[in-house]
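Progress note, sequence design subtask.
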C-alpha cells in the first residue's frame, strides 16, 4: 500500500468530524459568534470614518486592516486549540477560543505577521489598480489588468493557505518551537498533501452556497463543521508523517 492510501479520505474526515461535533455545536456556535462579534466590531469601528477614495485614506485603511489581521492570528491560534480539543474528545468551553491570548501569543503574532506580509504584498498591485480603475472606469485595458491582479491575489492566498495551513495547529503540539520552525514544519508536513487539502476545501463549496441561500444562518453550523474537519485533517496528517 502506498503512503497516499494511508490517509483518510475527505468523506472519512467529514464523518469523523460530525461524530466529534455531536452535542457540541452549541458551544462551537457560541465561540464562533464571540470571535466574529469582536473582529467585526473592531473592523467597523476602525474604518467607518476613513475615506478610502483618497490615497491617504486608502493607505491608512490598509495599515489598520493589517493590524487587525495580526490580531486575528491570536484568535486563529485559540480556534485551532478549541477544535483540537474537540477532535481529541476533550470537553470545551467558549473561553477556549481565547486560549491564544495566554498561550504564546507572540509566536501566533509572528506566524500571522509572515502570512499577512505575503498577502499584503500580493495586494499592492490590486489596491493601486483599484484606485486607478475608480478614476478611469471606462479604461478597458486597465480594468483587464485589475482583474488579473485579483486573480494573482487569489492564487497567492490559496498557495499560502495550503503550505502554512498547519502552523497554528503545530504551535499547540510543539510550543517550544519558534514561529519560523513551525512555518517550516508546516511547509514540510504539507509536501504531497496540498492536493488533498485543496480538494477537501473545495468539497465544502456546495455547502457554502447553500449557506448563502439561507441568508448566512447555516454558517453558524457550517463553520464549526468545517473547522472540525480541518482539525481532523491535521491529526491524520501528523499520524501518517510520524517517524
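Output:
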Amino acid at each position: 500500500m502506498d503512503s497516499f492510501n494511508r490517509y483518510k479520505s475527505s468523506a472519512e474526515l467529514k464523518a469523523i468530524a460530525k461524530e466529534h461535533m455531536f452535542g457540541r455545536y452549541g458551544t462551537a456556535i457560541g465561540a464562533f459568534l464571540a470571535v466574529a462579534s469582536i473582529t467585526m466590531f473592531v473592523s467597523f469601528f476602525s474604518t467607518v470614518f476613513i475615506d478610502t477614495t483618497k490615497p491617504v485614506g486608502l493607505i491608512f485603511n490598509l495599515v489598520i486592516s493589517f493590524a487587525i489581521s495580526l490580531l486575528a492570528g491570536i484568535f486563529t491560534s485559540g480556534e485551532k486549540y478549541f477544535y483540537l480539543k474537540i477532535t481529541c474528545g476533550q470537553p470545551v468551553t467558549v473561553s477556549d477560543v481565547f486560549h491564544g491570548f495566554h498561550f504564546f501569543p507572540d509566536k501566533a503574532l509572528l506566524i500571522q505577521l509572515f502570512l499577512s506580509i505575503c498577502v499584503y504584498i500580493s495586494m499592492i498591485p490590486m489596491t493601486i489598480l483599484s484606485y486607478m480603475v475608480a478614476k478611469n472606469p471606462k479604461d478597458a485595458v486597465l480594468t483587464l489588468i485589475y482583474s488579473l491582479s485579483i486573480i494573482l491575489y487569489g492564487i497567492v492566498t490559496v498557495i499560502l493557505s495550503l503550505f502554512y495551513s498547519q502552523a497554528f495547529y503545530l504551535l499547540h503540539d510543539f510550543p517550544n518551537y519558534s514561529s519560523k520552525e513551525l512555518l517550516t514544519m508546516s511547509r514540510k508536513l504539507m509536501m504531497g498533501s496540498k492536493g488533498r487539502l485543496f480538494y477537501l476545501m473545495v468539497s465544502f463549496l456546495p455547502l457554502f452556497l447553500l449557506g448563502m441561500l439561507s441568508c448566512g444562518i447555516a454558517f453558524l453550523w457550517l463553520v464549526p463543521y468545517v473547522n472540525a474537519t480541518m482539525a481532523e485533517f491535521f491529526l491524520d496528517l501528523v499520524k501518517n508523517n510520524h517517524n
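Residues 55-87 form the longest helix (33 residues). Work on this subtask will continue into the next period as scheduled.
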